[in-house]
Specification:
single chain, about 325 residues, alpha/beta, Rossmann fold, 2 domains, 9-stranded mixed sheet, 4-stranded parallel sheet, 15 strands, about 20% strand
Amino acid sequence: MIFLRYILCPVVPIYYLVTWFRNKLYDLGIKKSMSHKLPVICVGNLSTGGTGKTPMIEYLIDLLKKDYRVATLSRGYKRKTEGFQLANKDATAESIGDEPFQFYNKFKEDILVAVDADRNNGIKQLQSIGDVPEVVLLDDAFQHRKVNPGFNILLTTYNNPYFKDIVLPTGNLREPRRGAKRADIIMVTKCPENLSEAERNAILRQIKPKVNQRVFFSSISYSNTVISSTTTKPIKGLSDFTLVTGIANASPLVRFLKEKGLKFEHLNFKDHHEFLEQDILELDKKDFIVTTEKDFMRLKQYETLRDKLFYLPISIVINDAVKINKLIKDFLKTKL
């Protein structure tokens, strides 16, 4: 795969020009971005793969749900439905996608969860329902420029920051680095817990934020327990289990478990893996399975796995949570 990426290096300038030209058309107003009466906060990235969008959306939900009627709007990647879908008691990972299904399972009493590949239509549909939301959180929509969000949060990882990357197909960027200029907040995710001030300053010098941009740093916090559909267990009591991951980058999770001194085999699938019958038959043979919350949403439907399938919750810790919380709430105050 890496060799193929290098072979495709001559395509990089073409991809760069196409995405640059598309963005320029939006910047000049030739292609139209639609603004909405509802405040819209977009969480996205420049690169492909796991930068931590789901934990960031959940952070925003926790921050806002007590004071505002919140809706999340996602594309619903790999779902088996089309058009606008509003999650209800019959929703599944197949009908709305694994990440929206995760939002629904965790926050169904507090928020609305919707999916639509056409984000403008999705926002219009949310405005037409009885209990209209007061704020919409757009998941993974930084490149969806048909919507003009009021507030953009751009995520980039500590180990693979956008400013050291190039565009597809040789690199991982969906668009040129200059796209970061559209962000109001740039969040460097998956940082070491003990990231020094000197390291933060070095990253800031490479990001070179605009006057109106703020840069924050976050790390992953793993729970000390794993959770099943019926019970919880402490991590320290686990032994000889199977770790199942279908996410973009499982390395931080694997590193965390190893640092705990735990012994496990790792079945590593591609991001958003669709578990097939042969996969389930293989998992049936395992005695105890630990997975991510996203993968749990796809696997918990299988009765044979119910008693041995657990997930490890994660959350994010932001270096200056008070400041970012104030920026987001100040934005909403200007719109409501």
